[in-house]
Each structure stands twice: as structure tokens, then as C-alpha cells.
């Protein structure tokens, strides 16, 4: 029996189908196993560059279809009768442990409960997402996380679209959030990884990591830009929400993070420690969205050369080898942790997204299929691995945090890995979800 930890699910299928913003110009875009949690977008109008990933599809991936039927949104009360209205505030409680659910109802229940993590457990003052379970890890009650908040924004959009909460309730919560961010610490328009959810002051992520975090800010902004496109009403709340998001978006000095005009983006900068973290970001990994947004900046964009000579120049960018029968265009052998194919694509729809380097739908699907095939093959013979218990990615486990992959496999399965892969492998992901819910509880 695998070890089970609590899980945080931000499966991509929780996202609604959001129209693309109008773009003025093209731009890139036998030991035991553990089952563990993963810690914790419309892109803006691109600048006039030739940065590659482009697509004529919507920004957020639609729910997939499969041979068990369409994964479509259903109302919470179709799971089981409940006296709580679906638009109540806070979110209407979902009945605990209903049994014999259809696939659609089980997926809806999972999405609803995922949303409630970000809604009910959000910081009461800022509305931002907590960093894991704060007291469990000794962070204190006030620590909130920037990138995780972006994921939470996406869940609120999905919850609104699925009628879990009312549109006005959602818009007001998001306006509260962006009003807080407008006064929070930022550095050249970029937020820290962690901050105090009551005051907005920076909480260091590390001894020298006490300033701007460009990757975390990119995850935040992809969520906020999706919210800007979704909440398009003419009423004062939605109008104010869009204006606040635009102010935050316009203030990000993407070009500052080229560290004096280099053809690469740097992850961190601090007023106390400058560039001491010294982390130029090269691909392939989870940071594609950062480069796409940087090329799309309205006031401080970067040029296409930053993408091609920085992001696409990494030693582990191109691959082209075949694993378990699937060719992998980019990245580490066997693809690396599954979050590489998930985080950036909460806001970027990989359908039809291509550049000179890859077809990103093919890249992400093959990455997922390789990860699944490895877990089914189970070369290290860990107990519990199989077709219904698979997925290696970054997560917390019994002895701390690690970014697991086929080349770094210590026997921990993260439920988020398979569940956030629903758009790529709907049948395999549903098989895993049924096992986690029906068999493991």
C-alpha cells in the first residue's frame, strides 16, 4: 500500500475555455511508494517581436473528451443533494465522500474541492494563496505565495464558469486581491516569492532570495491576465478589476531582468543582494510562460533574441530521442518532472502552439506518456506503481521536498502529476483519479 499524504490539486481541466486577447503584433509565446502533494492565463498583448510560440487557439485548454464521455462542467448539486446554495459565500460545501460517482461527477467534485483550497484557505486580508499548510511546515500564519496565488486565480475563474460561486462574488474577491498587490512590495514591478499576507511585506525565500522572483510573478500574471479577459463586464467592479490588473501588468520591467541587456532572463534580483542569486533561466523547464510574457510586455518588453539566445540555448533544451516509443522534442531525457508540461500551460493553450523548436502539444503529450509508461514499467519495482497509480513531479513527501522524474525516482507518486495531465492523457488520468478516490480515499 503506498503512503498517502494530503494532496493539493490544481488540475488543468478546472480551467474554462477563455477567448484569446487581441494581439497587435505576433510574439512568442520493493520499498514503499509515497503518494504526495505538489507544493505550490491569458498572456498580455505581445510586443512587436518574432518570438516564436504562436497559436490561433484559446489561451486556456478546454476540457478534453475521451471514450468515457466529455469532461464537462456540472453543477455541484448533481453530485448529491445539498441545502447550501451554489452561490453562497464562502463556497458552498461539497458533501464528504459520496460514493459510486460517475467519471464526470468525480471530476467535478475534485475540481470543486481544489477550488475550495484556494477560496476557503486564502489569507483573509489579502485573498492570496497560502504556502502549503503554513503551521505544518513552520512558516507561520501569514506566509502567502505569489505563483500559487496565480493558480488560485485560475481556479476562481473556473469556479465562476461552473457556477460554484457567483460572478460578482468572484470579481469582488479578485478586486480585493489586486488592490492588495498594488500596495505590496515589488521590485521593478516584480513580486517576491513569499510575502506577508496581512502587510504585503517581503518574506525571504532564502538568505539572499529576498527580492524579486520573475518566475513566480509570471505564474501570478498569467492568472491575472486570464481574469482580465474573463471578467469583461461593464459594471464598476469588473471595470476596476481590469484597470488594476493592467496597472500591475504594465509596471513589470521585464527588460531589467536581462541584467544589463544580456540575451537571457534572470530569475531573481534583490535590492539588498543584487544579482547574487545569479540564476539565468535557460530551457527546457517550467519557465516558458516567463519568456512569453516578457516578450509581450507593454512598456518594458524583451526582444526575440532573448528567447532564442537565452531560453532556447540551454544544454538541455533540444532532445529528439525516443523513450518508451515516444519521441521527445525538448528537455531532459524522459522529460523531467511533469510540472514542466503543466505550469506554463495554465495560460498558454498548447493546441496548435508551434515554433522552430517544437510542437508544444506533441511535446507535452509525449512527456506525459513517457512518464506514465515509466511508472507502469516500474524498473525500480516500487510497491504501488502501475497504470492506476502513476505520475512523477515536484512534491512534498515523507522526508521533504523533491522534484521527482524517471531519472530521479525515489518511490513517491504525486497525485497532482496525473490529475493535472487530464488534457494530455484523459483516460490514464481518470484511471488514476478513480484509484486515488475509490481505493485509497
Describe what you observe in this structure.
By secondary structure, this protein is α+β, with helices and mostly antiparallel strands. It is about 30% helix and about 10% strand. The protein is built from ten helices and 14 strands. The protein has helices at about 105-120, 145-160, 165-185, 215-230, 235-250, 290-295, 305-310, 360-375, 415-420, 425-440; strands spanning about 5, 35, 145, 195, 200-205, 210-215, 265, 270, 280, 320-325, 325, 395, 400-405, 410-415. The strands form six sheets. Strands 1-2-14 form a three-stranded parallel β-sheet, with no helix packed on it. The protein has a three-stranded antiparallel β-sheet with strand order 3-4-5. A two-stranded antiparallel sheet has the order 6-8. Helix 4 runs antiparallel to helix 5. The longest helix has 18 residues, at about 105-120. The relative contact order is 0.16.
Write the layout of secondary structure elements.
Layout: E1 3-4, E2 34-35, H1 103-120, E3 143-145, H2 146-161, H3 167-183, E4 194-196, E5 202-203, E6 212-213, H4 214-230, H5 236-250, E7 265-266, E8 268-269, E9 280-281, H6 288-296, H7 304-309, E10 322-323, E11 326-327, H8 360-377, E12 394-397, E13 400-403, E14 412-413, H9 415-419, H10 426-440
Parallel strand pairs: 1-2, 2-14
Antiparallel strand pairs: 3-4, 4-5, 6-8, 7-9, 10-11, 12-13
Helix pairs in contact: 1-2, 2-4, 3-5, 4-5
Amino acid at each position: 500500500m503506498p503512503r498517502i499524504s494530503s494532496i493539493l490539486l490544481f488540475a488543468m481541466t478546472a480551467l474554462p475555455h477563455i477567448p484569446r486577447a487581441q494581439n497587435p503584433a505576433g510574439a512568442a509565446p520493493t520499498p514503499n511508494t509515497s503518494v504526495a502533494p505538489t507544493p505550490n492565463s491569458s498572456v498580455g498583448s505581445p510586443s512587436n517581436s518574432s518570438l516564436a510560440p504562436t497559436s490561433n487557439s484559446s489561451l486556456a485548454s478546454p476540457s478534453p473528451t475521451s471514450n468515457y464521455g466529455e469532461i464537462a462542467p456540472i453543477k455541484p448539486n448533481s453530485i448529491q443533494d445539498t441545502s447550501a446554495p451554489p452561490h453562497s459565500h464562502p463556497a458552498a460545501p461539497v458533501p464528504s465522500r459520496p460514493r459510486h460517482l460517475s467519471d464526470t461527477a468525480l471530476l467535478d467534485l475534485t475540481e470543486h474541492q481544489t477550488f475550495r483550497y484556494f477560496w476557503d484557505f486564502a489569507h483573509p486580508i489579502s485573498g492570496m494563496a497560502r504556502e502549503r499548510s503554513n503551521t505544518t511546515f513552520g512558516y507561520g500564519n501569514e506566509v502567502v505565495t505569489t505563483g500559487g496565488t496565480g493558480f488560485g486565480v485560475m481556479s476562481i475563474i473556473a469556479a465562476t464558469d461552473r457556477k460554484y460561486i457567483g460572478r460578482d462574488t468572484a470579481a469582488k474577491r479578485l478586486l480585493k486581491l489586486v488592490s492588495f498587490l498594488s500596495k505590496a512590495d515589488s521590485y521593478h514591478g516584480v513580486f517576491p516569492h513569499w510575502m506577508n499576507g496581512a502587510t504585503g511585506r517581503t518574506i525571504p525565500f532564502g538568505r539572499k532570495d529576498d527580492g524579486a522572483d520573475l518566475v513566480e510573478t509570471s505564474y501570478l500574471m498569467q492568472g491575472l491576465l486570464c481574469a482580465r479577459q474573463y471578467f469583461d463586464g461593464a459594471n464598476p467592479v469588473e471595470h476596476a478589476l481590469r484597470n488594476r490588473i493592467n496597472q500591475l501588468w504594465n509596471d513589470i520591467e521585464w527588460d531589467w531582468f536581462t541584467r544589463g541587456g544580456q540575451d537571457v532572463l534572470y530569475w531573481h534580483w534583490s535590492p539588498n543582494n543584487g544579482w547574487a542569486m545569479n540564476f539565468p533561466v535557460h530551457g527546457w523547464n517550467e519557465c516558458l510562460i516567463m519568456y512569453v510574457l516578457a516578450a509581450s510586455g507593454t512598456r518594458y518588453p524583451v526582444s526575440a533574441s532573448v528567447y532564442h539566445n537565452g531560453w532556447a540555448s540551454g544544454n538541455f533544451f533540444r532532445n529528439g530521442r525516443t523513450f518508451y516509443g515516444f519521441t521527445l522534442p525538448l528537455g531532459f531525457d524522459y522529460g523531467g518532472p511533469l510540472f514542466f508540461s503543466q505550469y506554463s500551460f495554465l495560460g498558454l493553450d498548447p493546441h496548435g502552439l508551434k515554433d522552430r523548436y517544437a510542437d508544444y502539444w506533441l511535446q507535452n503529450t509525449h512527456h506525459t506518456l513517457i512518464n506514465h509508461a515509466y511508472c507502469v514499467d516500474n524498473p525500480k519495482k516500487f510497491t504501488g506503481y502501475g497504470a492506476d497509480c502513476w505520475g512523477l513531479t515536484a512534491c512534498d513527501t515523507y522526508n521533504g521536498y523533491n522534484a521527482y522524474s524517471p531519472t530521479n525516482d525515489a518511490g513517491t507518486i504525486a497525485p497532482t502529476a496525473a490529475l493535472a495531465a487530464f488534457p494530455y492523457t484523459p483516460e490514464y488520468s481518470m484511471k488514476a483519479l478513480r484509484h486515488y478516490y475509490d481505493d485509497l480515499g
